[in-house]
Amino acid sequence: MATATHRVVRVALRGDSILTHPRFNKGTAFTHSERKAFGLTGRLPHRVNTLDEQCARAYDQLCEREEPLRKNTFMQSLKDQNWTLYYGLLSKHVKELIPIIYTPTQGDAIANYSHLFRRSEGLYLSFPEQDEMEVDFLEFTKGRDIQLFVITDSEAILGIGDQGVGGIGIATAKSAIYTLLGGMDPSKTVPVVLDVGTDNKRLLEDDLYVGWSNHRVRGKAYDRFVDQFMQLVRKHYPHSLVHFEDFGVGNAQRLLDHYRPKHSVFNDDVQGTGAVTLAAMMSAVGVTKTKLSDQRYVVYGAGTAGLGITKQLRDGIMAIDRISREEANKRFFLLDRHGLVKESLGPSNIRESLREFVRPDAEWAGVPTDAQGEIGLLDVVKHVKPTALVGCSTHAGAFSEEIVRTMAAGTDRPIIFPLSNPSRLVEVEPRLANDWTDGRALLATGSPFPPCKNPNGKMYDVAECNNALIYPGLGYGAMVTQARTLSDTMIIAGARRLASLSPALKDPDNALLPDFSEARKINTEVAIAVAEQAIAEGSAGVDWDREEVRERIAEKQWIPEYPDFIFDPVHGEGRL
Predict the structure, then answer these.
(1) Which stretches of 147-284 are assigned E, i.e. beta strand?
(2) Catalytic-residue membership of 556
(3) What is the spatial distance between Cα 190 and Cα 142, in angstroms, rounded to a whole number?
(4) CB 295 within 8 A of CB 388
(5) 102 catalytic, yes or no?
(6) Residue 353: what pLDDT?
């Protein structure tokens, strides 16, 4: 709605219609002249409030609710009423409220979606109504300049698994983060859930479940359903960005690879997690005065996130240190539920997407195995002597004291990234990793943790390796330039810009990534880097020079401010 350069909006709505429209509603911030023009004088109390006053009132109301889930439902209600107030409040309390509207609290809201349901919050495309998909799609997007679709099939939500139609909650949360931290106009975003059923027994047996109560559709029927949606996007919004979110391990990478040559698409679980981890790793090697290609990486958990991180780190090594893909792959040792991914596991136990990282059995002669011939994490650490240990397993406590101390014995500054979410599933608590390495570890986690106390008494801030530090900027940079694709080089450009802002590069005892309170500024820098790269490589759809990117982005970013309204029933926005 409002931007830094667009302060007057013509609106066709009047009376209750404008008060109940979250895009246009100002509540008590409507001026007296606006109240008269829009028929609101008798519908509002006399005093006109500023946005700051409204934020103060809303924050007081929020603080009366102690439980995070109650705070989450309050914020959702506020968003349903007034977008500008919602984002204005968030922008004043970013670090405090992101965990409320996003991970971890949003996971609880999604798990209880059918019991908390009050009103719809996005586009619901259900498998039984697939014949009407285009009608439903056009009805929802009619008259709107959509620039972003955030889409999920809800199979792998935030570490809590299959959540059926409740996955719309992660799509709306991600869309909100794009607006809050990236500057995306909320009227130009659409959260989408593809309801293809659920294999969650609890939901299937719940009489109040609001989604399609059927086991998940898979195979060719599933692919046709997803493709039906993607063809509608390509047909009606060819310059939009499609963000895939929380698809299952069997579909996430596959769908990304399939649609990437055809449209501008992004998968946060594969690319966003990898990009922010790459930035943190670049900061870590900056502290150690080494290179990415000098490291030996053990990745514990080779699912969607773990493989995405591995590939992003590998691509970063190739691009920055100029070595071949084959040589870069040799730096990685992956473990999944069968232990080390090695040749003798056999084709049935190795996913196709893991094949280029399979270790030859000859490397492991004499290394102990279990009864199934599998090699566990401790023996991998003893044999490899890794300099970097990354956890994406949701296996709480997997990085034991013995494992961490063994790793620390083989490197001066062990790089330890226990990234699993939520915090109760983290592979090792940062304070323990810090203690077991005598304060030498370079740490980053997937959830926020308090600082650790080093042996010298100084507090060490633990970097939060949160995708929201980078994905809004990656997406905005691609969207604002109408890029034909969000390329690997554009993602690496964004990661390099984030890494360059690391506090640890000024003081090695500081965090590897910037504080989350600076997330809006950080994502703007990421967006600028991505846009510059899109222009440099010729994938941008806008005729800009690289030198004007910063100014153009500043002009186009949405900010939570109330514009002046003029009543225009003929040409105004919001008319049916």
Answers:
(1) 148-152, 189-195, 241-245, 265-267
(2) no
(3) 12
(4) yes
(5) yes
(6) 86
